[in-house]
# Entry
Amino acid sequence: MIDATIGWHAQQRHQASIRRWLRSIALLVFLLPVVWTLLASFGITPNNVVSPPTWTGQPSLRYYAEIGVADPGFLGKVLTSFSLAAVATIVTITIAYLAAYSLLRSRVKQRALLVQGFLVLASLPVIAYIIPLIDIMRYLRLDDTFIGVTLALTAVYTPLALYVLYGYLSHLSPELEEAADLDGATVFQVLWSVILPVTVPGIAAMAIIIFVLDWNQFLVPSLLGGQFIQTVPAAMSDFYTFEREVEWSTAAAALIVSLLPLALVTTLAHRLLEQFSLGGITHAP
# Structure
């Protein structure tokens, strides 16, 4: 019996070791492009002429200083992208949260079909939205404005946020709301004081996803923006055009700078994301 227990523990340790190695290898593969870009941003680039390939160049920060020379307005575009993504995310999550809860507690017939319809909308490519959005924003004279681009981004990603939050809120026990109703709470008091505290991890996870999607969105800001609204994806596309004759290290440095806001947001939201579970809402004991 003792030998069997020892053998079982040894097998568990061996399997845990294999899982750690697999996770490490997967993490290395996923981070390899970022590591390559980070090295290139310091002027360390691969020399593919020789065999085996070697790394050449002396580490230097001068390529980060050259970002402002190659594109004097780059930091302004980073700030614009951050502001657009942040505001659009807040508006999207607010609308999706209220709509998902209303739909969940409504008595609408064929509710499941309606929810699947939002999934279909979320699956459509952005190009399916952009033509009517451009016409609407031009008619409202909101093209190339902060408000116009924000509303367009909100329209693109609200169906996805609504679908996900609906599935997340569906795990919520109605007993919490019934207890609040007995205490005389209004609908907004229930949403703010009862529902929101237990759904913060799911909302935060969805907000991070929407923020990343808004930040990386190229088509909407490029076609609706222009002279006044310019974002990082459009700026990065300019960096990687050969006509500008910008060094690859400078382009890599610009890319690293553009990744910093995403890293900051995910780091700040790390504790909330740890509480998120795809299985549903976890109630505190």
